[in-house]
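new request in #modeling-help
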Amino acid sequence: MTDLARCVAEAYDIALPHRGEGKVADYIPALAGVDPQHFGFALALPDGTVHTAGDADISFSIQSVSKVFTLALALRRVGSALWDSVGREPSGSAFNSIVQLESEAGIPRNPLINAGAIATTDRLIDGRSGDATIAEILDFIRARACDHAVDVDLNVAASESETGARNRSLTHFMDAFGTLRHPVETVLGVYFRQCAIAMSCRQLARAGLFLAMEGRDPLGGEQLIDAHRARRINAIMMLCGHYDNSGEFAFRVGLPGKSGVGGGILCIAPGHGSIAVWSPGLNDAGTSLVGAIALEHFAYAAGWSVFD
Ligand SMILES: NC(=O)CC[C@H](N)C(=O)O
């Protein structure tokens, strides 16, 4: 076993006894039935090696982890103009909070809270149809994941749309301020589907590698986004990737990360690799409880905290 394979196995073993702790998200009914005992871990390295443990090949709903990919694509498409629609400061608020939007003129704090991700998706649409936009997102993620089977779980997307009053409120509120360039339902149609993309830890870890390698996909060799943009996405993930739990995650793990209420976390170790964990039990801020424990131990064992 290589040292890194051992770090993965150890992190998995240390976190395993906590399986089942936390609360599975139930505000999206299609997610409520997911077994809290699942726990998967995958580490993808730039040479194509993937080290895994547990349920690393079972697909789960990536939810807000998708916000990282739409941020990268929106920056590639509209460049710095994106920052006319969304800020880059931590919110210190819950992922679906509306409070700051009123006093901050409809410009969300950052692209990783719901309002900011919806504004980012709006810019990514850039005059195209919702279907064309989700097709671009899927093509990008499939190519990065080296797996063309990655797809949207339409059942989850429909479930989220049916119970989407909160996201509809955020989107209409931004629309009232003139933040959006497309109709509310077009934007939400893309947003709900991007959140409902289903992937395994192995696929997700591979898909994040370009962010660890200065915007270049080390597997295909393509420069996907400028290096400075990859660095800045990592900075935003470090400061905003876990909502009002971002400080705690940086304190414990020391790596840029993005959590989703499906229980997945994508973590980037710049220059080293990309890690995806999944366990559905969430802490109060909506980050996988077991996943964060595993990542804390992995980052420590590998010596990969950016503060090391
Ligand atoms: N934190 C999350 O993963 C939230 C994403 C979810 N789709 C929502 O918009 O509510």
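bot summary: The radius of gyration is 18 Å.
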